[in-house]
Every structure is written in C-alpha cells, then in structure tokens.
Automatic annotation (TrEMBL):
Transmembrane segments: none annotated. One of its GO terms (cellular component) is phagophore assembly site membrane. It is found in: Preautophagosomal structure membrane. Pfam families: PROPPIN (PF21032). InterPro entries: PROPPIN, WD40_rpt. This is WD40 repeat. It is a peripheral membrane protein. Its main location: membrane. Keywords: Repeat, WD repeat. It comes from Arabidopsis suecica (Swedish thale-cress). The lineage of its organism: Eukaryota, Viridiplantae, Streptophyta, Embryophyta, Tracheophyta.
Length: 337
C-alpha cells in the first residue's frame, strides 16, 4: 500500500494538440454516442449509440471488433464482459417497445441471441458485469444476479442514486460490490461471498463517482464538490490517501486506479488528476500497459498517452483517433473471461 502512496508524484500534463478531426464521411452523420464504458481491465470498450452498439479493442492499437445497428432508438446503457461475446444493454426511451428502458437484455453476440430479459418496475440507470454477477442499478435499489442462472442473489437499498453509481470486482478470489449508502457521502461495501457489509463515510457531500481495484482491496471516491480524490481500504474502511484535484469545484466523470496500485487518474470537466485536456467533451479514463493512460470521449475520440512514472511532467500522445471511422475487423472476441 505504501508503494502506491510514495509513487504518486504530482501532476502530469498532456500538451494541447490541434483540434480533433470531426467525423469523416465514412461514419454516419446522425450517429450519436449515448454511453461509453470500459471493460473490466481497460483492454476494450463498448459504445452505446442511437442506432445500436460498437465494440473496440485497445491492444496493441485501437480497432473496431463488433458493430451492430438493430434499431433506430439505440441503447442508453451498454456493458461488456472482458473481451468475451457477452454484453448487457438497456434501451433508449419508452417509445421503443422492443427495447424499453426498464429492461436489461443479456446478449450473447457469438450465438446472436438474448440469454435473458430482466424486467423492472422502474427505469434502469446502470448495469455492471462481473464473472459471477450481473448487477442492475435502479434509482434506490440494486439487484444482484448470479450470472450462471440469472437468479436474484440479493437486493441492496441505497439513497437516491440518479447516476447509477456502483462498482464490482472481477477476480475469482473475491466478489466485492461498492455503492452509495443511506446518507450523502456514505459508501457501502459488500463482500458478496461472505455477506459482510462495511459502511464508509467517504465525503461530507454526495458521492460523484467511485471505483474498486480488480482485487477489491482499494476503493477510490470523489464527491460532487470535486476537489478531493480519496483512497480507502475497502475491507476496513481506513482512509489511506487523499489527492487534491484543485481548489475550484468541478464535476468528476470517473476515477481509475492502475493495476499495479501505483497511479490514480480522474477525468473531470476541468481536466484530470494526472493530466489536463481541453475540457470540450466528457471523457472516461483508464490505464493501459507500460505507463499509458487511455481516454474515450463521448465525441467519438480515443486517445492513448504515455507518462513518465519517475519524473512526471508532460505526457506524450501515442494515439489519437475518431473511433467511429474505424472499419470493423470482424468478431474475434469468442472465448471465456
């Protein structure tokens, strides 16, 4: 744990590059991004659009693996399970009778079939996938399903959760879920195997975003104030480290912890914890291999940047593309997780 605290050295910056190219002719002019989400290890991401969904892999370079356009309403929520062919979707709008927003569709793209439809009385805000669980987030309840039979394992109550905040671990040795508690600024951490619950007072104001490390040992949080990122021991709730993003309030979009537990990054309307951008679009941030940071924007942009782990300073941009313009390489994502 101390290695993470001592290794984080301050602000890394990304130089302001030229304005990113607008969508090219080969992309649909009316194509809109409704959601973007990393897979569990940032080796790929899925984009929900107003027509369907696209899946991209990031190693070694970004490429489009799957593109589907089943209807004109699209998916407001799209999630993927590692680089397998298993996905979860929620439709965009009640005027879409085939894919309404109160249903979760668990989809096997290899077999081209829906494995299950999970129906709820209210709108689904978010969905999270793990090896053992499908987690469905409503405004004040979270339903945890066992993946192998899609039966309800438990229902968790929360305070109002309009952003659908929730995160789950993705390793065989642990099954941990974190979500808002019953009071603003509170997080509840559930050990799904041992039925142990820990409540953590993370902030004074409401939680804006949170993430768990892959092994479920660390929890990172940010509040709606947006000035501090806090790192907790997810098991006992101990505050381990606090990072100041800035003095001014800012909306934090998401926060990520590197797999080696040495780096933290957070994207916001002001930029990020470890690097700064032009704040013209909303990004989600994740860590790649060999000291790289990956960003996916709702404007259709993808960026891969390398940072100096020893001295910090300005980041080097390695890749910068408009992902809708990429040609599909074919579905090569068959296999386990």
């Amino acid at each position: 744990m101390n290695s993470m605290v001592s290794t984080v050295r301050g602000i890394l910056t990304l130089s302001r590059s030229e304005t990113f190219d607008s969508p090219r002719d080969e992309a649909k002019s009316d194509l809109k991004v409704l959601s973007v989400a990393w897979n569990q290890v940032c080796s790929g991401f899925i984009v929900g659009t107003n027509h369907g969904f696209n899946v991209y892999s990031c190693k070694p370079m970004i490429k489009k693996s799957i593109s589907r356009a089943p209807h004109e309403s699209g998916f407001k929520v799209a999630e993927m399970l590692f680089l397998s062919n298993l996905f979860a979707f929620v439709g965009n709008g009640y005027n879409n009778s085939e894919y309404p927003p109160n249903k979760v569709f668990v989809w096997d793209d290899y077999r081209n079939c829906c494995l299950s439809e999970l129906t709820f009385k209210s709108e689904v805000i978010a969905v999270k996938l793990a090896r053992e669980h499908v987690v469905v987030v409503l405004k004040q309840n979270i339903y945890v399903y066992t993946f192998n039979n899609l039966k309800v394992d438990r229902v968790i109550e929360t305070l109002m959760n309009p952003k659908g905040l929730c995160c789950v671990t993705h390793v065989e040795s642990k099954a941990v879920l974190a979500c808002p508690g019953f009071h603003p600024g509170q997080v509840q951490v559930h050990d799904l195997r041992w039925n142990v619950i820990k409540f953590i007072k993370a902030h004074d104001s409401a939680i804006a975003c949170m993430t768990l490390t892959l092994d479920g040992s660390l929890l990172a949080t940010a509040s709606t104030k947006g000035t501090l990122i806090r790192i907790f021991n997810a098991v006992d709730g101990t505050l381990l480290q606090e990072f100041r993003r800035g003095m001014e309030r800012a909306e934090i979009y998401n926060v990520a912890i590197s797999s080696n537990l040495k780096w933290v990054a957070a994207s916001s309307e002001k930029g990020t914890l470890h690097f700064s951008l032009p704040a013209s679009t909303k990004f989600i941030v994740g860590f790649g291999s060999e000291n790289t940071v990956l960003l996916v924007g709702i404007d259709g942009s993808f960026r891969r940047c390398k940072f100096d782990h020893a001295d910090g300073g300005q980041m080097v941009e390695l890749e910068h593309k408009y992902f809708f313009s990429l040609q599909e390489t074919g579905n090569t994502m068959v296999g386990g997780v």
